[in-house]
Amino acid sequence: MNKNIHFGELIILLLIFFSACTTNEKKAVEQQSYNIVVLEGPTRVGFESMLDQSVKLPVATYSEIYDNPLQIQTLMLQNKPDVAVIPTTMAANLYNKGVDYVPLGCAIWGNLYLVSSDSTIKTSTDLRNKEIYLFNKGLQPDLLAKIRFNPYNVKFNYKYDSHLELASAIAGGVVSTAVLPEPFVSRAMQANPDIRIIDEVNFMHNGRRIPQTLIMIKRSLIPCKKVIEDYIYQVIDASINNNSLPAMTVKRCNIRFSPIDSCKEDIQFYLGSMYGYNPKLIGNKFPDNDFYNWTTKPVNPQ
């Protein structure tokens, strides 16, 4: 460097350098293409404006929809999606397996309902010795339903392979009582007027709604957090206010984006409840604080 450069000139050169770095980082973010995967059901409702491209990022995105959370789990184990919207318990389980994703925030705050066409069932107390159909044994809806309804000595049946199949079965009268999420509840009720909502399966022991679904992003994308977070806010807001579904259906989905900083305590309480009931559901280990820490340090597989 020329020794005759004055201190003031050096400061100007440094400002130009850091400005160039910031500009380059911004260009890198803007040139990024994000793969976002979501589940059929309430997540799709919350992300409708992304799927129909009515809300656009200043970057490219391409999205995929799956009807089974295990399909997305497989993709995340292969580190394929950039952003994945999955059940909270699955997010904790994958973290404990060493999958290097971190939660951006919570998107769905409980959307599970007990529905029935059985006229003898008017409240949960009428479930005693009855049969309830559920999709996916051992996953989040199953455990929530067991916590809620086990006191009534009910029998749980897992005959169907997706919420869509189960909704079709109860709409067609093949099944009388089931636990379903929205928008499948509304679809079944529209097809069969005998179906009624008996109870919700959406609250924790402290009376607060469950943080049911987390938006997970690759830890390597933390520098792009602001861009992705702003986009999620816009998508969910637009999806709620301009949805093609009936307003009551959207309302029962309980869609609300809460950044991780504002919902951390709810998630910890919820995962603690799940761990206490069935540790396997979250990977036999309560997630440590790194699950919530926004650092670029990779997770070590357990």
Describe the structure in your own words.
- Strands 2-1-3-10-4-11 form a 6-stranded mixed beta sheet, sandwiched between helices. It has a 3-stranded antiparallel beta sheet with strand order 8-5-9. Strands 6-7 form a two-stranded parallel sheet.
- 40% of the residues lie in helices and 20% in strands.
- The model is unreliable at 1-5 and 7-29 (pLDDT under 50).
- It folds into 3 domains: 1-30; 32-108 and 209-291, D-Maltodextrin-Binding Protein, domain 2; 112-200, D-Maltodextrin-Binding Protein, domain 2 (3-Layer(aba) Sandwich).
- The protein has 302 residues and is an alpha/beta fold.
- It contains 11 helices and 11 strands.
Task: Summarize the model shown.
With 302 residues, the chain is α/β, with parallel strands linked by helices.
Task: Give the arrangement of secondary structure elements.
Layout: H1 7-30, E1 33-39, H2 42-46, H3 48-51, E2 60-66, H4 69-77, E3 83-87, H5 88-96, E4 101-108, E5 112-116, E6 131-133, H6 140-149, E7 155-157, H7 163-171, E8 177-181, H8 184-191, E9 196-200, E10 213-218, H9 225-241, H10 247-253, E11 255-259, H11 260-277
Parallel strand pairs: 1-2, 1-3, 6-7
Antiparallel strand pairs: 3-10, 4-10, 4-11, 5-8, 5-9
Helix pairs in contact: 7-8
